[in-house]
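pasting for ref
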Amino acid sequence: MTLEAGELHERDHEGFLSEVHSFEFWFQSVEGYLHGHPHGVSPSTPFPELAPDRRAALVATLSTYCVGELTALEGASGMIGFAPNRATKIFLATQVADEARHLEVLLHRLAELGVEDAEAGFEARANRHLMAFRERLLAYVVEKDWLAALFAQNVILEAMEFAAFQTHLRTADARTAELLGGVLKDERRHIGFGENALGRHLASHPDDRRRLREVRQSLEPLVFATFEDAALQVGLPAAERPEIARLYLDSVARLGLGT
């Protein structure tokens, strides 16, 4: 489903949001890159031979990604119950489906790499800083703190994942790269939803910027510590490591939440 430029500008804003947050829009968005790609990868994509040290680093990295996707899965599902309107609830339901699929395909890739019972052990292998981030985000969900939960999940966490996956693509093997490329398409949609929802809220409630700055300052040390570890694991050259932080910071800056 696509909207022509003229049609888009003729739509009232609430009608437009209702459409782009719908299950129908979601289905049309994902069908093109999911069809014919079981577990996120084309059957014709070869299985690479990985050196033991590279395989170990990839297992650790994918385990960390699993924690991020599980956090978003649990966060989005929990937020449906206190989301402010119907369209938002529906979008979060589509995000739950996305996050569940991401977790599933990452676990399948771990199994391809020879990890036995991948689901049982990924949290133990994951980055400790992201595990701490997970606890903070889910606490906002439990407290039904809509602004903090939405910001932590659909801006900070999704921007973290987008930056990490985009950077990892530079050094990834073919199967991992294809899987991450499909996931990235979903992350763009999730970030766009978070930025749009928070941007509209802040336009009419500018004093809430202080609250979101506090959330950012609380979580950001964990974000950058996770990035540093991830860059080392995927073999990103030192000169390119600032790029992973820039991709993340661009998303936060669009909301005018500078420190």
